[in-house]
Amino acid sequence: MLGLLSAVERDSELTQRSLSSELGIALGLANAYLKRCANKGLIKVRQAPLNRYAYYLTPRGFAEKSRLTAEYLSVSFNFFRDAKHQCAALLAGCARDGRRRIALVGGGELAEIMVLSATDTPVEIVCVIDAEGGATSCAGRPVVGNLAAALDLTQDSGGLDALVITDVKTPQDTFEAIAEAAGKAGIGGDRVLAPALLRVTEQPAVREEEEAQA
Fold first, then answer.
1. From CA 128, how far away is CA 163, in angstroms rounded?
2. Strand 141-144 and strand 137-138: pairing?
3. Is the domain 2-57 a CATH 3.40.1280.10 member?
4. CATH topology for 78-213?
5. Are the C-beta atoms of residues 173 and 105 closer than 8 Å to each other?
6. Alpha helix locations (H) across the chain?
7. pTM above 0.85, yes or no
8. In b/e form, how buried is each residue of 88-119, taking b as 16+ CB within 10 angstroms?
9. Which of 3, 13, 130, 202 is the least crowded, having the fewest Cβ atoms under 10 Å away?
10. CA 9, CA 115: separation in Å to the nearest integer?
11. What is the pLDDT of residues 18-43, one digit of tens each?
12. Domain definitions of the chain by residue range
């Protein structure tokens, strides 16, 4: 909602298609949100030439955008604070257990916070595994597409000591996929970690595999 109101404020002549592309949502959903905002009196819709529409924020729309902005900043600050605290605790545990070379699984803000948190520790974030992002680096660390590429990258330096989930979009699915790949590569499930804020649940299949290896 905040993204939509901000987009309308920036450009009253935006199209539903450009809005859906900017927000990363389906065209039908963008249309539904526009109608919802109009029904709530947040935006005004006017007919424009060539069978197009122009969208304007109403005074209520400006007030709602301000409220949502403040709410978003508060949530973002709380997320950063909690994430930094949990990343520091996780890295301290890795250092204590002698796990010095770590690959992050998932790019984005949490990965950047993890790299930042590792600065003053003996733990080295050697790379970020992210098959979907399309980036070549994240917070100064190389981005690779899969675990095999990460292992190749660290082969000469002793391999990986642990994998840490930093994917905030689908952390459970990412955990299960990387745990399976790690098991096939001979990396125990106890070396696949995740900050508590991701609420990742260890799957029975992983526990059974660990018990079998023990």
1. 10
2. antiparallel
3. no
4. Rossmann fold (3.40.50)
5. no
6. 2-10, 16-23, 27-39, 59-96, 109-117, 147-153, 171-184, 204-213
7. no
8. bebbeebeeeebbbbbbbbbbebbbbbbebbe
9. 13
10. 35
11. 888 888 888 888 889 899 999 999 99
12. 2-57, 78-213
> Which residue, chain included where needed, has tokens 């979907």?
132
Query: Residue type at 2?
Result: L
Strands 162-165, 101-105: pairing kind: parallel
Partnered with residue 45 across adjacent β-strands are 55
Instruction: Please tell me the distance from the alpha carbon of residue 56 to that of residue 38, in angstroms, as a whole number.
Output: 10
Do 95 and 123 touch, CB atoms closer than 8 A?
A: yes
Amino acid at 16: Q
The confidence score (pLDDT) of residue 203 equals 52
